[in-house]
């Protein structure tokens, strides 16, 4: 009967012998996968084909980090007056909320904000220390990771620029950076910069010259003697 409503736009009331035309808009939502190898079992394909006209895919909250402060502020404005709380969510608190992966999506965020409104001070600013422990730990780990990435990128830029100015000579680049040649070699290995050493370059160049001389044939030697 539901398929008939979706396909024909008609319904038949209980006890009636004729169909009535109805004009409705059906909005259906699911968190299950309905197609492909991981499709949810038991869902009728003919029903999905009739429902699947315009599809809107809403990504999980962890993929919409920019929405977390907006949603958190909206939930706070809704629930804070119910608990007579006049405090505000601080910028550090909103940033810490954005570091959590939110497996429960928007409902989990809504519950966390409701818990904050109950336990937060009545006035002032709500700091990150008021957040649940799992969110506070995620914020600390995320901050440390971003700091390490920033330091690594800075070291790579400095070393690459010094090597470019020194024409690839590690000794000159090390003097410019104010470290020893061995220290620069270890630093390059740690940050993933591969550079031939001066000795290896000289050896390769000398070997190529020696090879060219060794490849001189009798004609070249005769021409040289003439």
What would you note in describing this structure?
- The protein has three domains: 2-51, no CATH class; 61-131, Helicase, Ruva Protein, domain 3 (Orthogonal Bundle); 137-194, Arc Repressor Mutant, subunit A.
- The chain has helices at 2-8, 45-51, 68-79, 91-97, 105-119, 133-165, 170-177, 181-191, 198-214, 218-225, and strands at 10-11, 20-21, 88-89, 125-126.
- Mean pLDDT is 78; it is low at 197-216 and 218-226.
- With 226 residues, the protein is mainly alpha-helical.
- Helix content is 55%, strand content 4%.
- The protein is elongated and about 95 Å long.
- It has ten helices and four strands, in the order αββααβααβααααα.
Write the layout of secondary structure elements.
Layout: H1 2-8, E1 10-11, E2 20-21, H2 45-51, H3 68-79, E3 88-89, H4 91-97, H5 105-119, E4 125-126, H6 133-165, H7 170-177, H8 181-191, H9 198-214, H10 218-225
Parallel strand pairs: 3-4
Antiparallel strand pairs: 1-2
Helix pairs in contact: 1-2, 3-5, 6-7, 7-8
């Amino acid at each position: 009967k539901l398929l008939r409503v979706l396909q024909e736009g008609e319904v038949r009331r209980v006890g009636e012998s004729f169909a009535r035309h109805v004009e409705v808009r059906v909005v259906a939502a699911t968190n299950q996968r309905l197609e492909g190898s991981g499709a949810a079992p038991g869902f009728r394909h003919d029903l999905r084909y009739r429902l699947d006209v315009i599809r809107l895919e809403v990504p999980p909250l962890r993929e919409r980090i920019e929405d977390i402060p907006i949603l958190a502020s909206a939930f706070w404005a809704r629930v804070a007056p119910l608990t007579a709380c006049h405090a505000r969510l601080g910028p550090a608190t909103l940033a810490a909320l954005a570091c959590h992966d939110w497996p429960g999506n928007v409902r989990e965020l809504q519950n966390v904000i409701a818990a904050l409104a109950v336990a937060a001070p009545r006035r002032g600013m709500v700091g990150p220390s008021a957040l649940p422990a799992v969110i506070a730990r995620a914020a600390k780990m995320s901050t440390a990771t971003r700091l390490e990435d920033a330091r690594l990128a800075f070291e790579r830029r400095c070393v690459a620029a010094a090597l470019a100015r020194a024409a690839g000579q590690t000794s000159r680049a090390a003097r410019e950076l104010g470290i020893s040649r061995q220290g620069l070699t270890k630093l390059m290995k740690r940050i993933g910069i591969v550079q031939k050493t001066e000795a290896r370059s000289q050896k390769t160049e000398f070997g190529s010259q020696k090879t060219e001389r060794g490849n001189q044939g009798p004609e070249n030697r005769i021409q040289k003697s003439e």
